[in-house]
Specification:
Blueprint lengths: L7 E3 L8 H10 L3 E3 L3 E2 H5 L3 H6 L9 E6 L3 H15 L3 E6 L4 H4 L11 H15 L4 E8 L7 H10 L4 E8 L10 H10 L4 E4 L5 H7 L6 E4 L1 H5 L3 H9 L9 H19 L2 H7 L1 H7 L6 H8 L5 H16 L4
Parallel strand pairs: 1-2, 1-9, 2-4, 3-4, 4-5, 5-6, 6-7, 7-8, 8-9
Helix pairs in contact: 4-6, 7-8, 9-11, 12-13, 12-16
């Protein structure tokens, strides 16, 4: 990160932050991005789907690839392969995912309960990737009785990790409850490497408050799923500029573009549109008549159907029917 900068990060989210969506968020102001998390085992097996996950375009840089796993040697070898494949700007280690299928494989937040192994993973990755920077993403602890983010971050710093992103929830919380920004601030005050704060940043006023927490940047996840313009809004607030929210027509235009690009990426319209259904649910948040819209979009299978939905919705708005 440049001296004096305060970047906005797009949080890696499985099934969401692929190249199409990352490109959209980059255009809206996201400064640093990372791939969806990728299994070290998948890299080692040269799985075709895994290789797809780590691909990105030059326009997405600075760009990192996020890996997870619990075997230091396999993670280190996977990192070397990724560097040879796609030449990322950094490698990120996922120590934060709370999903059980990841935790059961000794990945993600499971390592927050095993600091010696976490340190071995970090040391192996830093050595394998040198001189490429290695960063990490953590949660504040396993549960409320074992909040250890300060200890974990100090271990990571001592292992050569160059930046740490801290999600202000425990593994046990998942995505419920509230993010604890007091812990995030404590981490920022305890290490000399940049600390990126993550959790419950839903709009510009929230971002302005959190910027004073001692962190070096902010990471935004779920809020971007429903509103990629959040990056534009926050940057405007940071610069003291007026922000004009997108019109309904502009929102639909972006939705339509996202779907069309996903169809091209998948090479199959039905598959692409079916894969976009959950994304469409997110995009309708805050729209007039969102509930009936979601009901319709949950079964959509073609761009033509989507065009009809958009036309009908906008017409209904203009005639006061929604």
């Amino acid at each position: 990160m440049k001296k004096g900068s305060f970047p906005l990060f797009l949080a890696p989210m499985a099934g969401v932050t692929n190249s199409v969506f990352r490109t959209i968020c980059r255009e809206k102001g996201a400064g640093v991005m990372t791939t969806e998390f990728v299994s070290a085992d998948g890299i080692m097996h040269k799985n075709a789907r895994t290789r797809e996950y780590v691909q990105f375009t030059e326009a997405e840089r600075p760009m990192g690839v996020q890996l997870f796993g619990g075997d230091p040697d396999r993670l280190a070898e996977a990192a070397k392969q990724v560097i040879d494949w796609v030449h990322p700007d950094f490698i990120d280690i996922n120590f934060g995912c709370p999903v059980n299928k990841v935790v059961c494989r000794h990945g993600g937040s499971s390592l927050l309960r095993d600091c010696p192994l976490l340190e071995k993973v970090a040391l192996a990755m830093v050595k394998a990737c040198d001189p490429l920077p290695v960063t990490a993403k953590i949660r504040i602890g396993w549960d409320e009785k074992s909040i250890n983010a300060v200890q974990t971050s100090r271990i990571l710093e001592g292992s050569g990790i160059r930046r740490v992103a801290v999600h202000g929830r425990t593994k046990a919380q998942g995505y419920s409850g509230s993010a604890d920004w007091e812990v995030i601030s404590s981490v920022a005050a305890s290490v000399s490497i940049p600390v990126i704060g993550n959790g419950d940043i839903i709009d510009a006023p929230t971002a302005l408050r959190r910027r004073s927490s001692g962190v070096a940047g902010l990471m935004i996840g779920r809020a971007a799923m429903t509103n990629p313009w959040i990056f534009t809004e926050i940057l405007a607030a940071f610069e003291g500029k007026e922000y004009h929210a997108p019109t309904l027509e502009e929102r639909w235009s972006l939705v339509r573009r996202h779907c069309a690009e996903e169809v091209v990426t998948r090479g199959n319209e039905r598959v692409g549109m079916q894969g976009m259904r959950s994304r469409l649910m997110a995009y309708t948040r805050g729209m007039p008549g969102a509930r009936p819209l979601r009901s319709i979009l949950s079964g959509i299978s073609s761009l033509m159907e989507l065009d009809g939905v958009i036309e009908h919705h906008l017409a209904g708005i203009h005639h006061g029917e929604v």
